[in-house]
Amino acid sequence: MPDIQARIETIFEQVVRRNAGEREFHQAVKEVIETLGPVLRAHPEYTEHKIIERICEPERQIIFRVPWQDDRGEVQIHRGFRVGFNSALGPYKGGLRFHPSVYLGIVKFLGFEQTFKNAVTGMPIGGAKGGSDFDPKGRSDAEVMRFCQSFMTELYRHIGEFTDVPAGDIGVGAREIGFLFGQYKRITNRYESGVITGKDPRWGGSLVRREATGYGVVYFVEEMLKARGESIEGKTCVVSGSGNVAIYAMEKLEALGAQVVACSDSNGFVHHPRGIHLATLKRLKEAERRRIRDYAAERPDAKYVEAGRIWDVPCQVALPCATENELDERAARTLLANGCVAVGEGANMPVTPGGVRAFQAAGIAYGPGKAANAGGVATSALEMQQNASRDAWTFEYTERRLHEIMRRIHRDCHETAAEFGCPGNYVVGANIVGFRRVADAMLAFGVV
Ligand code: NDP
Ligand code: 2IT
């Protein structure tokens, strides 16, 4: 058998060649496969059956036109995507992202990440992602509805509770999920609750799904700190973003006695040394869909910095909860110099490879998204369980389940990292836990 490292490099070169120009996808693949050497050496059957080559090739990719009419009657054309990446462990599962930056390379990076993340949860879900280059920002509810209806008019034929189960991501929240589900129900003549997650709890959604990703990240960071004999209480925190994940990460940090002093959106950040006032932030962002600069207008002791660098704000815990590659090596060095001891990725791939290396070299607690933000999709799987049994659980019970899942994810990643000679390295832990689960199912199914 050729040298494993050389083989991994050859596979990576093929991925780059076969997926030209999709740099986020290349980055996500590299980050995973470069950690798999030890597990491939221990299990030659993975190499023999070309599991890595197969895992890097999406099972199916759907691209479609999404035409709709805006409020002025003008026709708009967007592009829709759904990539079913891997269904070895269950139906395809993963969110939909509506953001102008969406193209196939973003959807594939997210679908690839999702495959491993979903396996890390230990729940029966495969990996997928989808979305569109449509930007809901500044659009009326009626425009968002027409867009969602057009999007679902194509997507409906590719999804189903046993086939592919979408959910939200950037730009897709409860409003969009409602419009998407409404159109699916109308076209198919079926009230198939389990076809989409993140629904409003009043019509089939799970309590805690809205909070789950943010709460889960904080639970994960709490476990990492506990493993080092520390706690989250009293820590000063910075959370980037001010969307679904960021808001509920802040809520849980506050509940556990930490103080959040800064958050952001794509225009700038606010620094509020007395602590971000969550009720104000929620009203501005959730109810009124306004910008983070409006927070400073309402809280005069907070400072708004347009186009600034949020990671310059000193903190002990940093949670990047906005988007990919938002925290680079320079930002990581600033955080370290300011005394940061823990980083938990609420977003998918928010830290650049240079940033990750800096955190790992410094030996701080660094929780990669595949483990740290898995609470969202895990609670989606709990929503699927409730839908399948036509049941609805209480907030307390569902949150307890989420908390147990996050503790188990932490333990699995921690133990696996140590087993493969990299104690405390949650990147190695999460990648190997996820990979082994997917790979073993693929081996069992034969060449499919
Ligand atoms: P939201 O749309 O609710 O919020 C996104 C936030 O990030 C907004 O504050 C937005 O600012 C900011 N943001 C988005 N894109 C950019 C960009 N290109 N540059 C700077 N800021 C940006 O999305 P979510 O909170 O749901 O998602 C945030 C991250 O968490 C994403 O990486 C997503 O993939 C990940 N994630 C989400 C899960 C979920 O359950 N929702 C589960 C696991 C991970 P603005 O308003 O200015 O665009
Ligand atoms: O990145 C993610 O894990 C999500 N956007 C949530 C996916 C889901 O199916 O709940």
Please explain how this structure is put together:
The chain has 448 residues and is α/β, with parallel strands linked by helices. The protein has three domains: 4-55, no CATH class; 60-196, Leucine Dehydrogenase, chain A, domain 1 (Rossmann fold); 210-367, NAD(P)-binding Rossmann-like Domain (Rossmann fold), CATH 3.40.50.720. It has helices at residues 4-18, 23-33, 37-42, 44-48, 51-55, 104-121, 141-155, 174-188, 209-227, 244-255, 278-287, 293-298, 329-337, 353-362, 369-372, 375-388, 395-419, 426-445; strands at 60-69, 75-86, 92-98, 127-132, 164-167, 236-240, 259-264, 268-271, 303-306, 317-320, 342-344, 365-367. Strands 9-8-7-6-10-11-12 form a seven-stranded mixed beta sheet, with helices on both faces. A five-stranded mixed beta sheet has the order 1-2-4-3-5. Strand 1 and strand 2 form a beta hairpin. Helix 9 (209-227) crosses helix 17. It is globular. Residues 99, 101, 168-171, 173, 213, 241-246, 265-267, 321-323, 346-348, 373, 376 line the site of NADPH dihydro-nicotinamide-adenine-dinucleotide phosphate.
The span between the termini is 23 Å
CA-based shape: globular
The helix content is 40-55%
**Unreliable stretches, pLDDT < 50, 5 or more residues?**
none
Radius of gyration: 21 Å
Keywords:
alpha/beta; Rossmann fold; binds (2Z)-2-iminopentanedioic acid; 448 residues; binds NADPH dihydro-nicotinamide-adenine-dinucleotide phosphate
